[in-house]
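Appendix B. Extra example for self-study. Work through it before the problem class; the solution is given directly after the inputs so you can check yourself.
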Amino acid sequence: MARFVGRRRVGLRLAIGVAVAALLATGCASGGNATTAANATDASAPITITLYTSISQPTIDSVISAFDTLHPDIKVSVFRAPTGSLNARIATDQRTGGVRADVLWVSDPLTMHGYDSQGLLKKYTAPSAKALPAQYRTPSFAGAGLLYLVLIYRKGLTPAPTSWNDLTNPAFHGAVAVPDPGFAGSAMGALGYFGEQKGFGLDFYKKLKANGGVQVKSPEDVITGVAQGKYKLGMTIADSAIAAAKKGSPVEVAWPMPGAIAIYSPIGVTAKSKHVSAAETFEDFVLSKPGQQAIAKTGRQPSLPGVPGIDKPAGATIVSPDWPAFFGDKASLLAGYQKIFGS
Amino acid sequence: MAAQRRWRVITLVAVLALVAAVIGWPLVKLVDVLVSDPAGASAAVTSPGFGQAVAHTLETAVATTLLAVPAGALLALLTARPALPGRRALRAAILLPLLVPPFVLGYSWTQAYGTAGFSDQLLGVTMPGLLGPVGIVVVGAVTLAPLSYFIVGAGLAARAEPDLERAARVFGASALTTLRTVTVPLLRAPLGAASALVFVSALEAFALPAALGTPAGYDTMTTRIYGDLALASDPALFTQAIALALALVVLAAFVMWPADRMFKGSRRPTRAGSEGPVASHRPTAGARVSAALLWCYVAVVVALPLAALLLAALTPAVGVSPSPANWTLRNFDAALSGHTFGALRHSLMLAIVAAILVVAMGFLVVLAERRRRGAGLGTAVTLAYALPGSALAVGVLLAYGRHIGGTLAIILLAYVAKLWPLGHRPLAAVVDRLDRDHERAARASGATPLGAWITVVLPRLAPALCGAALLVFLTVVHELTMSSLLYGPSSQTLAVVVLNAQQLGDVGATAALSALMTALVLLLATPLFAWFGLRRARARSDVTVRIAQRELADVV
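Solution. Structure tokens for the complete assembly:
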């Protein structure tokens, strides 16, 4: 018996040892491969530019595959992460020799204004950017796509909401959800619009809170909550809400008065890019008609007028925060907001 | 003797060098961020609501620990009884919450017990306070109880003291007194280790406070860090986020250092108890009752939230009735499209290598500690565990990004730094309960020090080793923040895919991805457990543990 157990243990030990060695070997080998592969691409491809972005993967994939067919001489290497991680990566890059991206393409103008004020962006207006409405561009960056903030409500809700003021309507007391500006760039944009707009201001949020309004993490959580029946209506992003309704969620979308809030997703070339002309070519492509069509194909709204995007009801109006002004006031507005919605 | 002293020095130097490289240097780099921007750093501490966030973090972490550790210990003591009907299935079921990725926990619980959730639709009952501190603590405790269960269970499997407990009973102590004066003091080291891990896990938890705290306006240090980073294109806010993250480390150190000193060294009896007579395997009435209660627990904390997740994966859209007529596999298609497979391969590889490395490093600390009094090492290797993933990733990038940025190696380095205590604490707890007489006997009979360890000590450590490896494996597979910040073009992990699905607002695809990950881990973990002979080790310990369990069953 003792001998039997002993032999078993030796076998077990051997097996564990072999397994450990094998795994470590595969781990190291593949780590090595990864580096060599990356170096090899750098060496063999004519030019590789790096894109840092927080835009969703399907949209990025679609745009890059369209770009590849037109510009096979430029490869785009993508680092995609949520805004917070992207910010951390860029801040880290800055402390270790400079931003390693040639192009930045982020989800909200406020973030881009932040980078621009640190001098991370090159002054450049792409030829195709000139066709964009003036409120969607600055001398350093331009809006490649648009998010519309709209109202989402439970199917069959009466009275059907028609205006942002319905969020403070006592008929919906305790059943209203809004996303947290501290978490979501889009919600921050809404704060920028309401906070600076006559007739709304921070008072709007006070009334919303007094009406039993609930702050959830993200616009997606608003959709989930309304679809589940937790809330009757809320503020969210149009394309996600439309997609949920299409898939069968019991929700409807209202384009509220005075207008859906537009948040553009800015793209710009970095000041320290080593492949400036390739980076500019990429930005110009994204803002051009084929680039905008590639964005529209993934159910997102392009910013170039005339390229068909998501379904908007006839007569739907669009409003925009005053981004440069909001960039100056964001800290005080956010603090004011958090005073209202903190515990 | 000289050889022994040399080994002592070598292990100690190795551990200290590792601590300096994987934890110390990244921490120094983070401190350097504060030093270069002192205004931003002080703004973090003086900003309104800082004190409140610290208070929220501390109160939820302490409450979670007070709830999760005793609950896990109770589960371990109850399921160690051989007379318990369906014991093996229960043991597996209790560990299941570990398999649910943290990023869907909030969703699955609100779906199970929140407004318009299962319990609401079926019985008109919702869990009061689910959105807010109560929810954060209760759901946090439920998800962390398995950690305590596993550490205490591994401690019991290594050795129990039936003689002492029997003696106490013979001399007239009640079952409760025996538990209080004999069983619990003997479990001091495992309970201390469990408390340390649970406390720090709760301290740096982000997914739950974000999902359940935001609707109640209840912010913690981790949610503030997230918020600061979201706006960190403003350099001052980046510094603030780092300052908050380091404040968490300081907080952890302040609590851990005295606690580690207090728990250091158990009240080990000087002589080993002999193994008791084999008790009856026949289920008693008491055992049946406790089995029934345990199954209720499993149903409430495991089955329902998991079912909510699975139904979300099978339902085409949120708000559609989850009846079988509506079921679809479309969400699984969405989950598996794109970059999923390459990312899965990377994640699995990282998880396996990290599991092996972390356990080996934990073992090394145990060796170094055994030969040196003092609790400093245990606290030191736990420090990075308190750092939120985003901050640790920043520290690792600042320290090593220039050389290995964008490779799997840097992700592995961050994992190893963060998860080191998951390898160390369970092992330290179990080693503390081992009877050194056995090792001495082996040495006296001519075994080399290494031989004595391998033949006498290692087999009793098997459950702790496997468990620790499994914990690391699961944490890595579920990890989102660090790898999403560290990955490069050739080192995408599952996190990148999950975060994308989440950003698309696709609850169905996220749920499908989580369900697949859970199934995959179950598939991998089951043979792992069987293969490493966990059941054998536990079965051996059953004889000695049995009596203690009966006492406890009398109490419960």
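Self-check: Chain B touches chain A through 75 residues (CB under 8 Å). If your reasoning did not lead you there, revisit section 3.
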